Amino acid sequence: MADAPSGLSEHLVAAGAFSEGERNAVYRAIETRRDVRDQFRPDPLPDALVRRLLEAAHAAPSVGFMQPWNFILIRQAETRERVWRAFHQANEEACRMFEGDRRAQYQRLKLEGIRKAPLSICITCDTTRGGPVVLGRTHNPATDVYSTVCAVQNLWLAARAEGVGVGWVSIFHEDAIKAILGIPEHVKIVAWLCVGYVDELYDMPELAVKGWRERLPLDKLVFEEGWQDCEEM
Ligand SMILES: Cc1cc2nc3c(=O)[nH]c(=O)nc-3n(C[C@H](O)[C@H](O)[C@H](O)COP(=O)(O)O)c2cc1C
């Protein structure tokens, strides 16, 4: 390998651990972030705040620095209504995939805040960005979508720190939403996020609060040195 060109070292900056207060803030955002469906306030988010959330998303890692994301901001109630209808149809289909008590329990869940949250952000992945050969993506094309998910999580955590709730909606046929927003063929929808101020959040995942599913014990998910047999979870 060639030696690093001179002049690069001026870009190396100190990178020690954060102060205790800063560390606590980071862990607090991670631990108290929630998926929000119903607690949204109707007041609009200031443009500067939305910009900070988008800057956080845009700071995410990406394969080959591909940055395959776009952020489509949807504020118009009419568009959100059309997207809600697409959700509703898909949700009825999803409901029928469960049987008996589980179906009744599913029906009681609220799984979106599309009409209630004042802002929706559709985050997409342009699979062609950076050309046909992208560094690091050569053996796993899905890494472009993984990158976009990193952007979603950055935005979600920044939102928590700002007192803003985020709810991820994935229950829809992708083509239905692509048609509503005019998204081209080669671009994938990764996330539909409902975004708005919140005054309250659940202290654990809403699906756990409502008895749908519990958090798994971390110790059962950590293996040493290789895969280990594990019970069905
Ligand atoms: C890829 C992805 C898709 C999701 N889709 C939905 C959805 O369509 N509707 C919904 O209510 N929640 C959705 N969620 C939120 C999860 O249900 C939620 O993250 C999980 O129950 C844990 O709760 P928490 O995020 O509050 O910790 C989604 C989350 C992810 C990561």
UniProtKB/TrEMBL annotation:
Gene3D superfamilies: NADH Oxidase (3.40.109.10)
Signal peptide: none
Keywords: Cobalamin biosynthesis, Flavoprotein, FMN, NAD, NADP, Nucleotide-binding, Oxidoreductase
GO BP of this protein: cobalamin biosynthetic process
InterPro entries (alphabetical): BluB, Nitroreductase, Nitroreductase-like, Nitroreductase/BluB
Reaction(s) catalysed by this chain's protein: FMNH2 + O2 = dialurate + 5,6-dimethylbenzimidazole + D-erythrose 4-phosphate + H(+)
GO molecular function, one term: nucleotide binding
Domain of life: Bacteria
SUPFAM superfamilies: FMN-dependent nitroreductase-like
The protein's enzyme class: oxidoreductase
Enzyme Commission no: 1.13.11.79
Domain Nitroreductase: 30-197
Family: Belongs to the BluB family.
Subunit structure and binding partners: Homooctamer.
NCBIfam families recorded: BluB
Name of the featured protein: 5,6-dimethylbenzimidazole synthase
